[in-house]
Structure formats: C-alpha cells, structure tokens
Amino acid sequence: MSTNSSTYPTRYWHSLDATRIQCDLCPRYCTLKSGQTGLCLVRANQQQQIVLTTYGRSSGFCVDPIEKKPLNHFLPGTPTLSFGTAGCNLACKFCQNSDLSKAREMDILTQTASPKTIALTAQKLGCHSVAYTYNDPVIFTEYAIDTAKECRKLGIKSVAVTAGYINEEPRREFFAYMDAANVDLKAFTEKFYYKLTGGHLQPVLDTLNYLKRETQVWLELTTLLIPGENDSEAEIEAMTQWIREQLGPDVPLHFTAFHPAWKMLDKPPTPSQTLTKARQIAIKNGIRYVYTGNIHDQQGGSTYCHQCNNLLIRRDGYELSTWHLTAEGQCNRCHTPCAGIFQANPGQWGAKRLPIKL
Q1: Is 16 a member of any domain?
Q2: Which residues lie below 8 Å from residue 164, measured CB to CB, with a gap of 6+?
C-alpha cells in the first residue's frame, strides 16, 4: 500500500465475532461493527480490520521553538517541525485544540505528506526534531512511527506531545521510536479524568512509570491548572510527591494556565498566583525543574541550578538570553549537571513560528 494512502491497516485489534472487532490501541477498547469509527474518529472498522484513516494526511505543518511543546531541557532554542492530524482518544471538556481533536479528518486534513517527505523537509529547514503534536500522536501511531524511522536515518530526533493514554504493547512500540516526550498529566484524581476527559488516571501513570523506568526517552510533564477542578494545594501536593517518589527529581514539570475553551467557557482563566504557588509546592517537594506557562513569568520560565541556584537559562517567553551551561551541560558556577539533552551552545531559533506547505 502506498505510504501516501490515507487508509492504512493497523495491527492493534482483534475480532470478537463475525460482525464486531475491538481496537486494542488504548484503554477505551472501542468495539466496532463494519463501517464504524472509534471515539478517536480516525481508527475504523473497514472490511473486518481496524484501519487508520489519516495516514499521510495532516492538518498542517509549522516550524516552532522546541520550548512551545513544552520542552525546556531538550535541545533548548532549536526549531522543531510540528504537525498533527485529526481526532483524539480523550474527550476533554477543556480542550485547547478542539478544532483538531474533535474534527473528522475530511474537515481539516488539507495537506498530504509521506514520512520520508516530512523527514527531508525537516532536514532542509534545519530542524533538529520533528514533533508529533496538536492532536495526540497515539491515535496516528503508525504514521508517527514511520515518520520517526525516516527521521532517524537523517539524525533528526522525534518528539511526542501526548496524554499518554495508550495500552502496554503499542506503548512499547510507539516510544521505541521517540527521543523525547511531553506527557500531559491532566490531574491527579480519577474523578477529574472520568468527569472531564472521559478517561482514567491509572493508564497515564503507567505510561509515565514505563517511560522513566524502561526507556531512554527524555520526559517532561505538563499540567493545565483549571480553577476549581485540579488546582487545590492538596492535589498539587499529592501529585508532586508522587512525581518525586516515582519518577525522580529531574523530570521537568510545567504548570500552565487554563483559558476558557470548548465546553468549559464558564470557567475563568487561571490566576498567575495559582501557577506560582503550584511551582513553589513542587520545588518544596523536591522537583528540581518547575516551570509556569501560558503567562508572562520570566522567573517561572527560566532554568536554575538545583545545587547553587545559579541562573542557567533565562527565558522570556520562547526567547533565550542568559546561557550559563558548560559544553557538558553543567552549571558554570558549581559544575553540577543539569538534567536534560543539551548542545554545546544554545539554539537561536527564538519565538518564531513558521507555517509551511509540503
């Protein structure tokens, strides 16, 4: 089958009977009759097999700063070629990208590109990585993996921006081709996940433990703090203690501000002081690199040495200025290593956003 075909056979499914098959990619386990599509909107039962209906098709391509993913400790200052498709396997009422995640592919997938074309384009544009983002790459895992394979041939890294809602076997295959991931830990209660995302907390925690303990994937976390839903000090205490105990002190954590969206237009934006307080709690609980996002907060966006508090990387939005890391990624004052994957010199991409046509 052509790699530009939009309908692509998959293997994470099994037959239940003569008329129904079950998708085994994620913990939803959608049961589908012929012609039906899963909740993700892009994996469908066609001729008694699950196919990916968005292979080779994208909602658009853009060169972004890597910090926008957000990844602050993975090749800072470098450009990443970003793209997504359509659909999502969660149903977040607060979705910040609902135009993509809730759309059927025929509505928005206006660009076509093979995995090889994407990799070659990234190389041509000087991108250090390709980011599978905008909607969750878990649901287009075959397209993402094939693209990552082509990127590896050219020395280009692959970045997954994901909610981590994926089953064990496909999780092993998917992340085997990723070099970095930002996982959206949406909250730390089962009630929140069930009520506001239609999913469950434990599979996400399983993904986080897997990434940290069984892979070399560089991992960062993001939590969008929503007023009255997941921003209590008690929940942030519990979550950050779990991160410290289970994942260790070196996994960077990003607290980002909610803005009214999708089905939660009645909620106010997150006050900046809520993010600042969350950052303080996380640092108190032993997490060394904690950031605030979606607000202007130079201190909350910058990187500090956990040993001597030396300013290592000053950020103003997506712009880097101060760079006090040695070529080996150590603090230039006390020589304590800063966790992450760094180049000898900072990237110079800055805050530019460059939409492109392939």
Answers
A1: yes
A2: 138, 181, 183, 184, 185, 203, 204, 207, 208
Examine residue 83 and state whether it is found in any structural domain, yes or no: yes
**Phi and psi of 316, rounded to 5°?**
-125, 100
Q: How far is CA 335 from CA 175, 193, 324, 325, 338, in A?
A: 32, 41, 10, 9, 9
Q: What is the mean pLDDT of each run of 10 residues along the chain (358 residues)?
A: 64 96 98 97 96 94 98 98 95 85 65 96 98 97 98 98 98 98 98 98 98 98 98 98 98 97 94 98 98 96 98 96 97 98 96 94
Burial 74-85 (b: 16+ CB within 10 A, else e): bbbbbbbbbbbb
Q: Which domain holds residue 162?
A: 57-356
pLDDT of residue 107: 63
Instruction: Report the distance separating Cα 34 and Cα 47, nearest Å.
Output: 7
Is residue 153 in a domain?
yes
**Which segments of 209-328 are extended strands (E)?**
218-225, 253-257, 290-293, 303-304, 311-316, 319-323
CA distances for 47 relative to 9, 35, 42, angstroms: 11, 8, 15
2 within domain boundaries: no
Using alpha carbons, select from 69, 125, 184 the residue that is nearest to residue 356: 125
**Cα Dmax for the chain:** 68
- Percentages helix, strand, coil for the chain (3-state, rounded to 5) are 30, 25, 45
d(CA 281, CA 251): 15
Mean pLDDT of the chain: 95
